[in-house]
# Entry
Amino acid sequence: MSNQKNSFAMRLSLVFQLTLVLVFILNPDRSPAQRMPISLHPQNPHYFLYRDKPTILITSAEHYGAVLNLDFDYIPYLDELKSKRLNLTRTFTGAYLEPSGAFNITANVLAPKPAKFICPWLRSEEPGHTLGGNKFDLTRWDPAYFERLRDFVSSAEKRGIIVELALFCPFYKDDQWIGSPMYAANNINGLGNVQREEVYTMDKHGGLYAIQEAMVRKIVQELQQYGNVIYEICNEPYFGGVTMEWQHQIASVIDETEKELGVRHLISQNIANHTALITNPHPAVSLFNFHYASPPVAVGQNYHLNKAIGNNETGFRGQQDSTYRKEGWEFILAGGTLYNNLDYSFTADHEGGDFRYPEKQPGGGSTSLRTQLGYLADFINSFTFVQMKPDSLFIADGLLSPSVGYVLAEPGQQYAVYLLHAGGAQLSLQLPSGRYKLDWLNPVTGVYISKDKMVHKGGMARVTVPENTFDIALRIVRKK
# Structure
């Protein structure tokens, strides 16, 4: 019996080794670190760990239709993000789409032409979809969709870009609900004969919950091999009747499916617009996202959770680059770990991000903004930021209204400072004695406009902010 056990163990070991060899053959460009999913950093879970490196996610990205809109060529889009050193994209699965003209958005990537809409479910032979084309069969998967989804994620992975996949989205108005494949008139399964506020519930869904759970399991299975995926339960669930019970159940489905697969990706939950105190979070959720979180109160309000806090949608506050540059800098320097601006310069005809949107467009986005957010990425990555945390006491005085300051600090070692409307101000800094290097950065140009050295003997350190028109950043690092 012992020999039989040893023989079985040897065969099992050989199978395992051959499996590893096969994995490397099929994925020659992916190291073990690349295959490990992005996770919370074990030393400081307010930040991420990806490919063995501390990671913060910063981007200005398309309006969520990169996969579901067949007219959108995502390769030049991803190339543009990479070229600006941006490392995040957010996209929707296709359970939700928008009609043309929704939210006053011109050339909306999330509003594909009827013949160019693709989603997890296969179209049937029966015509009659409310937006054109055949109805869907909610019991059959569309292989072309999953091939496109995998290729999108794989293409992003090759460029070091994380994909936050929003599985669901509420229906804000009836004209959005009647375009969904889950709407009764759009499928051949007799499902979805409910009001839009009942779709994402556990008791009034009209048979849709089983379809939703199956879709989640299928997507998780299809993407199990990719390390650059974060699953978001639902975009803006605080609209459209989405229940917390349903959100927690979807989180459990993701968690349970991945346990069966032997892999674990991060799960994110969208909490609120602006800010809210998070209570009784689902244990499988590691990233809590807010929208339009300026000023970044949400970070400090929920910092005690020791989880990642993101601002994964902003972009409805006009078209000035300065608006969204400021929001990105203040959120990251307040201790946030993810920032995403909606960038309307990406369209199905301008995937490189050079669309000239009209003045009525609700938000902005541009090559210049993406460049400026790249400077933010460079700045924060110049620190060992996992050693840092928000410090509201470092600047003792000297900031007068309407000036605002945000500081990340490892006391006595390194400080990242972002200031608004502070040109010429005298700052008193709670800086321990030592020798320091002080570098002042222009966030618009990415140029360090002043580089100084300081030998500080203790007590308050006084520095003068260089003159500037809007904002400025300061890096302070102790010299050895």
